[in-house]
From TrEMBL:
GO terms for molecular function: DNA binding. Gene3D superfamilies: lambda repressor-like DNA-binding domains. This is Helix-turn-helix transcriptional regulator. SUPFAM superfamilies: lambda repressor-like DNA-binding domains. InterPro entries: Cro/C1-type_HTH, Lambda_DNA-bd_dom_sf. PROSITE patterns: HTH_CROC1. It comes from the Bacteria. Residues 95-104, 128-137 have a biased composition (Basic and acidic residues).
Amino acid sequence: MTELSELNNAEIAALIGERVSAWRKLRELRQEDLAEQAGVGVSTLARLESGKNCSILNLISILRALGKLDWLAAVSNDTAVSPVQMVKIKAKEKLRVRQKRGDSGMDNASITPSSKMKYTSHSNAETNKPDQAHPDKTSGWTWGDET
């Protein structure tokens, strides 16, 4: 069996559609009958079965009509959390996550010479000797923030 993490979104949608179609056929239902029981349009059910876009609410309605809500058990909270723990969790949740000022959002591992460094020559172009203004500079690489 293929791991879901190895599939792209379109492949997962197609897999869900195949499962819904198989469950419908096992119950010997036509698309029209299941769509009516689920309270969705026939075209919505046909789109879902073919792996096309479908809203989560329509998916839930269809799974409910098929008696397959337990298929969503993995997303439900199967461990009991006390009300006190819930208050602590809610208090720690951030409503928004903002980028800090001056933070590019890049970690240091992704810095490359082409993205953050610039090459500055510290030699006299005519003599190819070190520039007298920067005698201690032996490397031509700088970060660009030196003055």
